[in-house]
Amino acid sequence: MSNKTPIPDEIYLLCILHNVGATSPERALTFEEILRWTAMEPPKAEQNLNKLVESRYVEVKEVLGARKYFITVDGIRKVLSMYS
């Protein structure tokens, strides 16, 4: 029996975005790309992305009509703090 507490879904999503390198506006991912990387159901992914945006861990930018998501400096710090 493990005594590890599972990480919240939004933090899992943040870690995936960090691990695939979505760490700047130039490397931002579309919602569809995020779904492929995370294998989350669309409503769950959207809810968690909204939480991350509200927390200022993720920002959204629009490129040619497509919304793209990337991790902010605060989001990178949050991920790295999990390893210390």
End-to-end gap: 24 Å
Structural class: alpha+beta
| Number of E-state strands | 3
> What does the main sheet amount to?
3 strands, antiparallel
Average pLDDT confidence is: 91
Could you tell me the strand content as a percent range? 15-25%
CATH class: Mainly Alpha
Order of strands across the widest beta sheet?
Answer: 1-3-2
**Helix-strand topology string:** HEHHEEH
CATH architecture type: Orthogonal Bundle
Helix content: 40-55%
From the alpha carbons, calculate the radius of gyration and give it in angstroms.
13 Å
Shape: globular
Low confidence ranges: none
CATH names the topology as Arc Repressor Mutant, subunit A
- Count of individual domains: 1
CATH superfamily: Winged helix-like DNA-binding domain superfamily/Winged helix DNA-binding domain
Keywords:
3 strands; 4 helices; 3-stranded antiparallel β-sheet; alpha+beta
Textual characterization of the structure:
The protein is α+β, with helices and mostly antiparallel strands. It has a single domain (9-81), classed as Arc Repressor Mutant, subunit A (Orthogonal Bundle). 49% of the residues lie in helices and 17% in strands. The chain is built from 4 helices and 3 strands, in the order αβααββα. It has helices at residues 9-19, 31-38, 42-54, 73-81; strands at residues 29-30, 58-63, 66-71. It has a 3-stranded antiparallel sheet. β2 (58-63) and β3 (66-71) form a beta hairpin. α1 packs across α3. The two termini are 24 Å apart. The mean pLDDT is 91.
